[in-house]
Design goal:
Number of strands: 10
Strand content: 25-35%
Oligomer: single chain
Length: about 220
């Protein structure tokens, strides 16, 4: 009888440990990562490497690095390309990612350039849109990215005939009442100098170029 009771106690103890182990296992969090390279006709490569994760508190952290073996063309104040006898130096820039939005197999992430071989890019906002198409055998992965200039500050719109008009501070979210899973569209912030990054639109609305590169992109909703 003692052997039966002892076996039962051991069994319950092991079951308790297993349950605690499963309960403490971290749940998957939204993330996007990968590396993608495009080789141009001049045999020079452009490479984007990135990773971004949003934790349980909704805080996004990550990094994006872009390298271009062809370098960049330096322009003067009038926008004309400056001529130089020396070949352009390879260009790179690194941005810290602080926003991440994922819908299905696509992700939009954004951040601020913190380091670059060209000082003029430091402080600019950058936005990266990626598409994860599995193993890429039938449809390759794809991406697109752009720079956004920080918005200068200015006067706040107000109705001169309405004392203390605060309409510019209002925000709303437009959704289709007949679609429960409609992600909706947020109102546009019209207060100048109040944005903290590139504007983010519904992920499906971004157009991606025809895939011309190779790489592995992973998106985890």
């Amino acid at each position: 009888m003692k052997k039966i009771v002892y076996a039962l106690v051991v069994s319950l103890f092991v079951t308790s440990l297993a349950t605690r182990g499963f309960a403490s296992a971290p749940a998957s969090v939204p993330s996007a990562s990968g590396i993608y390279t495009v080789v141009m006709e001049d045999k020079l490569a452009k490479t984007v490497e990135f990773n971004a994760t949003t934790d349980e508190r909704g805080v996004t952290t990550g990094q994006m690095t872009f390298r271009d073996e062809a370098g960049i063309v330096t322009r003067d104040a009038e926008g004309n390309a400056e001529r130089s006898e020396d070949p352009p130096l390879a260009f790179y820039m690194t941005a810290y990612i602080d926003t991440l939005k994922i819908e299905k197999n696509r992700a939009v992430m954004g951040g601020t350039v913190r380091d670059s071989s060209h000082p003029g890019y430091i402080g600019q906002w950058v936005q990266l849109v990626v598409e994860d198409n599995g193993d890429g055998r039938e449809v390759p992965d794809n991406l697109s990215w752009c720079f956004c200039q920080p918005e200068p500050s200015g006067w706040i719109p107000a109705d001169a005939e309405v004392p203390r008009d605060d309409g510019a501070y209002w925000h709303w979210w437009v959704t289709d009442a007949e679609l429960r899973d409609d992600p909706g569209i947020p109102s546009v912030n019209i207060i100048p100098g109040n944005r903290i990054g590139c504007p983010i639109f519904p992920v499906a609305s971004y157009e991606l170029p025809d895939a011309r590169g190779e790489g592995d992109i992973q998106v985890q909703p």
